[in-house]
């Protein structure tokens, strides 16, 4: 009898090692190690501490457990018995959790967000989420740094009830802390006990598999419960690196909206609201890069000068203060090089003879932007992209016009380039 028990324990140890080798260490520690392992006849019985744990393990790791058990000629059964034999206590009834830090995004009213035609859709969607009158979840807002994504997240938080807002890095940190403190189930309950869950900078989860699995399950659970999920990112769901197709498709399954950097009118209003005189704001708005963070820094520099020096900053003083920030007058070549950088192609390639699909598209986009943001003739535009002839430019304009009618992302990108080049 004792020999049989020793043999069974040895088999369980080997099975546990086989399962552990099939997953990352954080997932093993969080989910599988706390289970009680038993072999009853030809069945590997795994006992979870509660139903939530059992459901999650079955959904995420069920295939792995089944495959490993089959290697030992066993079937697998996941059960809930209230109290597990494992020494790690993870019972929801005895756990407590509180965030280690406050939200990094401030709560602000929607009036703080300066609307523009380009970002009207995103603003309207955010207001609808705040009013709890939506049929889509998650709301995925993406755009470049400084376009106002975090500001919109703060607006939703301010005008909604029972909201949890975390940064992507904060979610990673809090999940890791919960694993370390062995109160991961209380952390899960905390995240689900809300009407709206907002994660700012979801791209921060890239490459963190255990945290990714937990977050995706959180999104599924909240959506199933009829609750709102709002996500922000610097790129669209299908462009997220370090996210598999399953994750990308889930994040794109609600409503995906894009945002663009502030245009000249928005930049001017931002400067005026920050205390910059209107005549100075008029003069420099078009010469400050379209990045909300940079605009805030410009306004702060002007105000600080006035406070420290005891006099208002004149336009000459401002231009001297911001000599390293204000853009010089734009030239067609500088516009082309700027777009090359943002499109991820080299200036030499644009002007060269390459005909790859991505390069041709980039070249055509640049032609369209030059046409709509300058007074250059078609022949002159062709000269700035490698001495292309008039007919080539005409063909590019027609092709992009067709694509824009069905590709909203391409249209938004071109409009953004036009705004930056004017």
Name a few traits of the molecule.
422 residues, alpha/beta, Rossmann fold, 3-stranded mixed beta sheet, 19 helices, disordered N terminus
Compact overview of the structure:
The protein has 422 residues and is an alpha/beta fold. It has helices spanning 2-21, 25-32, 51-71, 120-130, 149-158, 168-181, 184-192, 209-224, 245-251, 264-273, 278-284, 292-309, 315-321, 332-343, 347-351, 357-373, 378-384, 390-404, 408-421, and strands at residues 36-40, 43-48, 75-80, 139-142, 163-167, 196-200, 228-233, 255-258.
Helical stretch tally: 19
Low-confidence stretches: 1-6, 82-94
CATH hierarchy, class of the largest domain: Alpha Beta
Q: Could you give me the name of the CATH homologous superfamily of the largest domain?
A: P-loop containing nucleotide triphosphate hydrolases
What CATH calls the topology of the largest domain is Rossmann fold
Helical content (DSSP H or I, runs of 4+) = 40-55%
List the helices and strands and how they pair.
Blueprint: H1 2-21, H2 25-32, E1 36-40, E2 43-48, H3 51-71, E3 75-80, H4 120-130, E4 139-142, H5 149-158, E5 163-167, H6 168-181, H7 184-192, E6 196-200, H8 209-224, E7 228-233, H9 245-251, E8 255-258, H10 264-273, H11 278-284, H12 292-309, H13 315-321, H14 332-343, H15 347-351, H16 357-373, H17 378-384, H18 390-404, H19 408-421
Parallel strand pairs: 2-3, 4-7, 4-8, 5-6, 6-7
Antiparallel strand pairs: 1-2
């Amino acid at each position: 009898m004792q020999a049989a028990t020793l043999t069974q324990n040895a088999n369980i140890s080997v099975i546990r090692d086989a399962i552990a080798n099939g997953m990352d260490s954080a997932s093993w520690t969080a989910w599988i190690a706390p289970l009680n392992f038993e072999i009853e006849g030809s069945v590997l019985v795994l006992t979870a501490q509660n139903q939530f744990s059992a459901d999650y393990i079955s959904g995420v790791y069920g295939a792995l457990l089944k495959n490993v058990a089959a290697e030992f000629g066993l079937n697998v059964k996941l059960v809930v018995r209230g109290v597990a034999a494992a020494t790690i206590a993870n019972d929801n009834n005895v756990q407590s959790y509180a965030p280690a830090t406050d939200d990094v995004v401030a709560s602000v009213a929607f009036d703080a967000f300066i609307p523009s035609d380009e970002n009207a859709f995103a603003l309207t969607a955010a207001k609808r989420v705040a009013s709890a009158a939506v049929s889509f979840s998650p709301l995925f807002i993406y755009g470049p740094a400084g376009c106002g994504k975090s500001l919109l997240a703060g607006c939703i938080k301010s005008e909604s009830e029972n909201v949890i807002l975390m940064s992507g890095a904060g979610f990673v940190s809090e999940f890791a802390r919960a694993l370390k403190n062995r109160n991961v189930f209380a952390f899960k309950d905390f995240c689900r006990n809300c009407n709206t869950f907002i994660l700012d900078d979801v791209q921060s989860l890239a490459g963190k598999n255990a945290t990714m699995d937990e977050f995706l399950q959180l999104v599924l659970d909240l959506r199933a419960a009829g609750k709102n999920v709002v996500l922000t990112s610097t790129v669209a769901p299908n462009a997220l690196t370090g996210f598999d197709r399953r994750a990308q498709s889930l994040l794109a399954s609600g409503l995906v909206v894009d945002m663009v950097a502030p245009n000249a009118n928005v930049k001017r209003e931002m400067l005026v609201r920050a205390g910059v005189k209107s005549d100075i704001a008029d003069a420099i708005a078009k010469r400050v890069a379209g990045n909300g963070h940079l605009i805030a820094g410009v306004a702060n520099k002007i105000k600080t000068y006035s406070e420290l020096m005891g006099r208002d900053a004149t336009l000459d003083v401002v231009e001297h203060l911001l000599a390293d920030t204000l853009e010089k007058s734009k030239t067609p070549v500088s516009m082309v090089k700027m777009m090359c950088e943002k499109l991820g192609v080299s200036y030499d390639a644009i002007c060269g003879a390459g005909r790859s699909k991505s390069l041709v598209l980039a070249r055509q986009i640049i032609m369209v932007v030059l046409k709509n943001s300058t007074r250059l003739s078609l022949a002159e535009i062709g000269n700035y992209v490698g001495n292309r002839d008039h007919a080539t430019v005409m063909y590019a304009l027609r092709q992009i016009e067709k694509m824009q009618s069905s590709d909203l992302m391409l249209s938004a990108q071109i409009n953004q380039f036009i705004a930056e080049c004017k």
